[in-house]
């Protein structure tokens, strides 16, 4: 009985899939300069990104070659396995077949290195010596620390101070991979010093850390900035996941009826979904696409599809996306990777065009699903990925009710080895199920830029 | 360029290899009853083990079929990948080729589930409802919690109290998999109550936890006891690792010149080594076998090959093995899995017969090797496994010096995701390099049973 499908190493994809040219006509809106309301050109991003990545951001080529050096590093954990969750199917007594792609086998424990590695590569090719980036819980910081180390570059990670203090193990991991990790706000940047002058005991925030890292990059010639989700080129790199999954589903002689993933900025879900979405957009398949997000940060299910800033301090171009407002601060759920106020423009446009749907879940029901999964399939999932598990279980039960033998495919984007304190709270009955932050969302939505 | 070699799922071994019938004549000595000095028969073990495992313990069959239900669960993480450490080779500038088998991809993060799963299976087949076992740092307890959960059994883990308090995450993981975890000494057993009466604030020890778990098993009809290393049947189950590696090395058209692993009780190293040792014992190959242990618990390099008790409280039969004395208490090194006073009888006999060698390393040089490995190969290794890495690096440099293009194969038995505080100490310069505990070893060796 087949439990997992392994692609041979020589079937590791040679190209990423760029969905931009296949998007419904007129669905992609350009980034705008907030001062002029005019589209921004690629040159506006050169102080912090290398031209090769900027060109990928705006590319209209359907496929982009993966550099050989990047593929060699991918092989440290790729191709990743595709599992059939036979034990979970049996526990649910569902006629549905549940497949999942597992990205937790990377050294950093998630899908994030799929883009950290090429980002480091293109920066090194451009002569950049150091990457400055931010991290909240530490997943992205770890991935960039690993990637820069593998290319002999330096890495400075601005880590939100409260996480720096509460999550020392992710910090240690970044340091094992040679990164310098700073508790943000720091006194190294104008942004940091400004915050510290106003609030000396500031615990930091992702918005502040982004400001510090991008300022660091903009003010040092040998340093660039790097982002772990949201942008087109980040989603592009993640399509290696879906390109593998397409082959692995073929090896099983099945095609998914529904493709599920969790969304924070959108990159892990886009990575799995886009190579299958290609067939839907071409009119060849009618596959359903379902993204799962937290009720306490319901970007797609409750947000507005409009132009907004990517960061809290309004320093980015305006992007057309689902947003709760750039200064929305969600409750402190354990799925830290899903606490972003907005959604990748490519995902947002697909939702707006009716090709994708979203569903939102509360924290406790997500951990119920996580523990049920761990007890059947073994793997202890990350809280973020557990949103996808919850959606997959719900769908499997729905298909059971309807007696449908449908095929589910979801992305298990990472393991939960650094989230055991959250499981501890869940098992001890002290997990908080935050109420839907209706008032806070209203307030932040009121501050959306007027278009 | 090949980075890793994946066995197809249908090449997962169908049989474990039992080295007993191939051992040098007269090298295997029977367990003795400490009261009579006479060999103990299988029946002595029936209060705590099922007959199927006892028969494996004394089997003279060369191969033992892996039950289909066990193979189905193995497939959740097996076959495990074989990597070629090309980046490390390059960093060392060695002509040697370094291969490693990676067992950290199991849900529990180490090789331990390879035996926990069949042990749970055979107990369930025998009508046993619950397994009682002990754990120190938590690796074994996690593996048995997972295995019993997958077979619908209960699990009680007696966890050394100091670890229970210092390592809450391993405890949470066991609970996620449905186990009851108790801080040992408990007031549930006579052994525990006796200790608590004498020392109310006892921090516990592995010896005490073993006594509690085996008493629990002996005093409950529906409950058996389970051990994670040392015994023949445990090493037998681990040979699935080596049987895979034999096939994977063939796929690379190479045969190892040296096979390396870390040793605590001996099971991960035996698992990789025995299927290759089979060829050496048959006179077909002259492969070198090298086991790595800590200088602070130098069982093989400094111990005596003699009969001794397996536990501190002298409740087991006497086993012929390398030992530092049953009440030797090693310093608190981070490689908790290597802190056992003795060595598996099968490994000990092979060392005694000149088929294996051992080497000992200090804690800091082991972490030097671990960090060098992580920075080149990505994976952050467990402190235990890092002893094998250190030995592999030393050998690769020795071959460089001699200009020899030899092939190294080692077992990377687990990841270090739950050992980041140790890395933190290493990077912060506060890691303790314990002196060789010469006086303590002298004292404990003086208490060896007189034979």
Explain what this protein looks like in three dimensions:
- 2 copies of one chain form a homodimer.
- Chain A has 451 residues and is an alpha/beta fold.
- The first copy, chain A, has a domain at 68-109 and 232-445: Rossmann fold.
- Chain A has 17 helices and 15 strands.
- In chain A, the strands form 4 sheets. In chain A, strands 1-4-5-15-10-11-14 form a 7-stranded mixed β-sheet, with helices on both faces. In chain A, strands 8-7-6-9 form a 4-stranded parallel β-sheet, with helices on both faces. In chain A, strands 2-3 form a two-stranded antiparallel ribbon.
- In chain A, strand 10, helix 11 (267-281) and strand 11 form a beta-alpha-beta unit.
- Chain A starts with a strand and ends in a 6-residue tail after the last helix.
- At the A-B interface, strand 1, helix 5, helix 7, helix 14 and helix 16 of A face strand 1, helix 5, helix 7, helix 14 and helix 16 of B.
């Amino acid at each position: 009985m087949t439990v997992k499908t392994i692609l041979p190493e020589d079937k590791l994809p040679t190209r990423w899939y760029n969905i931009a040219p296949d998007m419904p006509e007129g669905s992609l809106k350009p980034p705008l300069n907030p001062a002029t309301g005019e589209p921004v050109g690629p040159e506006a991003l050169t102080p912090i990104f290398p031209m090769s990545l900027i060109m990928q951001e705006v590319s209209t080529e359907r496929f982009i070659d993966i550099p050989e050096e990047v593929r060699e590093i991918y092989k440290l954990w790729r191709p990743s396995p595709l599992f059939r969750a036979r034990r979970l199917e049996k526990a649910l007594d569902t006629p549905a077949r549940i497949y999942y792609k597992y990205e937790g086998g990377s050294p950093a424990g998630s899908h994030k290195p799929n883009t950290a590695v090429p980002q480091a590569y293109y920066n090194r090719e451009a002569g950049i010596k150091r990457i400055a980036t931010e991290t909240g819980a530490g997943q992205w910081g770890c991935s960039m620390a690993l990637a820069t180390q593998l290319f002999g570059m330096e890495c400075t990670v601005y880590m939100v101070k409260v996480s720096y203090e509460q999550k020392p193990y992710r910090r240690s991991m970044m340091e094992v991979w040679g990164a310098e990790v700073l508790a943000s706000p720091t006194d190294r940047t104008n942004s940091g010093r400004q915050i510290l002058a106003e609030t000396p005991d500031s615990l930091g925030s992702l918005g502040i850390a982004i400001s510090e890292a991008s300022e660091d990059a903009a003010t040092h010639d040998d340093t660039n900035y790097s982002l772990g989700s949201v942008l087109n080129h980040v989603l592009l790199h993640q399509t290696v996941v879906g390109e593998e999954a397409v082959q692995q589903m073929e090896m099983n002689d099945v095609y998914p009826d529904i493709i599920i993933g969790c969304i924070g900025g959108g990159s892990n879900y886009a990575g799995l979904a886009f190579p299958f979405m290609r067939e839907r957009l071409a009119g060849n398949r009618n596959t359903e696409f379902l993204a799962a997000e937290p009720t306490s940060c319901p970007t797609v299910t409750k947000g507005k599809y409009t132009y907004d800033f990517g960061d809290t301090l309004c320093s980015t171009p305006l992007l057309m996306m689902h947003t709760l407002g750039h200064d929305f601060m969600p409750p402190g759920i354990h799925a830290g990777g899903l606490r972003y106020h907005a959604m990748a423009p490519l995902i947002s446009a697909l939702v707006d065009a009716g090709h994708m749907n979203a569903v939102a879940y509360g924290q406790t029901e997500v951990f119920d699903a996580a523990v049920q999964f761990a007890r059947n399939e073994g793997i202890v999932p990350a809280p973020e990925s557990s949103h996808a598990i919850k959606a997959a279980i719900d769908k499997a039960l729905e298909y059971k009710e309807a007696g449908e033998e449908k095929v589910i495919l979801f992305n298990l984007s990472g393991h939960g080895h650094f989230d055991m304190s959250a499981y501890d709270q869940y098992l001890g009955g002290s997990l908080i199920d935050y109420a839907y932050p209706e008032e806070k969302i209203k307030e932040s939505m009121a501050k959306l830029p007027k278009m």
